[in-house]
User: Fold these one by one.
Assistant:
Number 1:
Amino acid sequence: MLGGRCINPLNLRDAAEIDHAVATFARSLNGGLIVTTGATATRDRGLIFVIAGGLISYGPDFADQYRRAVGYVDRILKSEKPADLPVQMSTKYQLVINLKTAKTLDVTIPPSVLARADEVIE
């Protein structure tokens, strides 16, 4: 339970399952969709993320992760063993807000939240 609401995890494997899950959740009152990082979410991100009409997204900055990975590749190419390299967690996150979706849903995003957004889609 989260804030008095049930959380129902779904193991989505392809675009058809994502479409069905989003359509089902969109029909529920006061629902929300939490997407965890994974191959399916990355591959089909156009179906679930803010650029596709979602309201708000908060998650790791993938461009930053790719830039940091280059440093690891360099170290490995210079003969360091991958097993000896430390595991790194994401340190930079992005908040993206879709104002078009907010308007469609008749949701007002407070100016203080908009000011903190890394990207605002109008």
Number 2:
Amino acid sequence: MKTKNRVIIALLIIGTLLFSVVQFVVVPHNNAKEQEYLAAQVEPTTHDLSRILPYKNRYIGNSSNTINLFYNLPLAEHGVKFQIFSQTLALEIDYQVSAQKIGGEKVHKALIYNSVAAFSLIDNLKKITYVFSDTSYEVTRTNIESVFGKNPSSLLAKEKWKTAVQHELENRDFVNQCMRTAILEKK
């Protein structure tokens, strides 16, 4: 009987120790990694392409797909409303904040990134209008193709995306050139 009680007590102690390790070491570590990953998703240069690939679609008319795509792109954390114009194959994204509050360079990088992502993943999308409380921007597929090539969906391989899109966004001259030629401010 003594041996049986010792085994039970030893198992109870081991179970308590293992539970404590999981609760106080493993779970917080996993939560920290998840928070770090989510923080990286709001920056175009660190955004995970695989997060948006499931939203690839041939048609803009698949509204839940289109909306979910933009909910998983940078700037979505500022609140987003959508309007899809199926007849003209256009999309209007209304951010519930001023571009000035976010910051010019951050907005410009995100608009370039989001535009390339949208035109790469939605085959028949022709135009996007981004509306902020203080300004708006307009971009067309033709403008993005003039910067990134005739077939934006060819960029969807992970390494190519990093090289052709994300690394380019770290170049201030490239961002400024895109904002002058591809994404036009409408005010």
Number 3:
Amino acid sequence: MIGSGVLLLLHPAFVEEAVFRGLLLPRDGSSWPRGRLLLVAGAALAVYVASHPINAMLFRPQVLGLFASTPYLALATLLGLACTGAYLISRSIWPPVAFHWVTVVIWIWLLGGQTLLGT
């Protein structure tokens, strides 16, 4: 379990947060006009959500049904919103990484995600 926990910390938590929050959003959102910040944050969120079924198509087609399902995408959207908020409030990548990691670990280990992914 510890090995899988470390892997989940690296991917998806760190990699996705580094890309979708760290690279796509400004570190100091207060220096941007609110409308522009909302537009950029919304676009980053949309790309984040869309990346899940795209990754499944490219790398794990056996889970495409799950990663493209409405409930999964709705939950990914909520996680993305929470991580975006944590990043913009803290101005650090680490709170969203931690939040993302804890969420995925709970889903995989305690809520049946491992079975749904076939691992």
